[in-house]
Amino acid sequence: MSSLSRDDVANLARLARIEMSEAELISLSSEFTVILDAVARVQEVAGADVEPTSHPLPLRNVFRPDVVIPSLTSGEALSGAPAQEESRFRVPQILGEE
After folding, report:
1. C-alpha distances in angstroms, 88 versus 13, 75, 82, 96?
2. The predicted structure's pLDDT at residue 98
3. Which of 65, 74, 78, 79 lies in the 20 to 30 Å Cα band around 88?
4. What is the enclosing helix (H) or strand (E) of 89?
C-alpha cells in the first residue's frame, strides 16, 4: 500500500506553488493514497506478456479507392460566386499585410 503523508502533500504543493489549508492537505493525502493504490493494482495485472496499447480496441484506417468521378467544371462552381478572380473565388482579406 502506497501513501503520501500530509508533509509529502505539503511539499508537492510548495513545489507547485499552490497554497493549501491544513484540511486540504489532510484530505489530499488520503485521496492520493486511493489513487496510488489503484495504480499499484493496475501494475500488478499488467505482466510482461501484455503489450502496451493506447486504445482498448485495435485501430485501423478505412480506405476507399481513389477514383476520379465527374464533378463541376471551374465555370460551374464559380457561377454562383459573388466575386471571382483568375478562375478562383474572391474573398475579403482578413489578415493584415505583414
Report:
1. 57, 10, 11, 21
2. 61
3. 65
4. strand 88-89
Residue pLDDT, tens place only, 26-43 = 999 999 989 999 888 887
CA distance 55 to 7: 37
Q: Which amino acid is at 13?
A: A
Residue type, 39: V
Domain boundaries in the chain?
Answer: 6-45
Distance CA 73, CA 81 (A): 14
In whole angstroms, give the CA distance from residue 33 to residue 68: 60
CB 87 within 8 A of CB 74: yes
Helix (H, G, I), strand (E, B), or coil: what is residue 53?
A: coil
Distance CA 2, CA 42 (A): 13
Q: Taking Cα atoms as reference points, which of 35, 89, 27 lies closest to residue 13?
A: 27
